[in-house]
Amino acid sequence: MKKLLQKIPKWIQILTFLAVFGIVRAPFEDDLRMRLVSNGILLPPPAKDALGQLNQSALMGTLGGLRSIVSSYLVLEAFDHFSLKEWEELRSDYRVITALEPRDENHWRNVVWHIGINATANMEVDEKIPEFERMRRFNEYAVGAIELAEEGLGQNPDSAIIRLQLAEVYKEKLNDPCETARVYGEMIGLPDSPGYAKRFHGYYLAQCPGRENSAYDHLIRLYRESENNHLPSLIIHIKDLEKKLDIPFALRIPDPYPPLPGQGRAKPENPDGIPDFTDPAPK
Q: Is residue 141 a contact partner of residue 120, using CB atoms and an 8 Å limit?
């Protein structure tokens, strides 16, 4: 028996051991997992349609701790697809990766970035593809990235990281200030939310038709909350809204428009509220 084992390659022996070990431990893991889900400690497993996309190599991930190993391998494979602009193959890899590790928000952030930003950018410049097909794929990738982000948020509802990448797709690719404002608004108060989320919510709300009053109320509240919020961008947005909403001059903030790059300090506003940038740039 010993001689027979010596003739079997080591890697086959190791895989056989792992397979047997996985089979033996599976019933115990499944029972424990069901109890943790029923008590609200774990989220339910990913949808069956995602798990159904597991290919043969990824099935190894069902062997307990090998999930992270398979996931890491597929992340490297996905990077190769990114280098070769193979977007469908990359998306397929990440469907498996996110099914294996649905609670890792970085995986969701990465696939939204790849599909929503990189793949769409490729469609904007790849002249080997007919223009109508490029536009079709651009829209398909942008919408697909949004769907992936929403799916990721279903598994990680408090994720600011996924929302940041989702906001980039709405802002940079779909030019949708209303949805951009909504996503930044959802970030407010979340763990790891960036400090600028409150301001950006107001900035993009100001660009959303019909939401100017809400934007003004939000930004003026930030302005009054702390002098640390008196940033040039916030002041510019407030003053633009003051004009647009015809806020009485006596109620407008006293700050002049901040100087534009290459210009000197702005002079005080005229009675009609129009700034004057006639100062020469400092030498």
A: yes
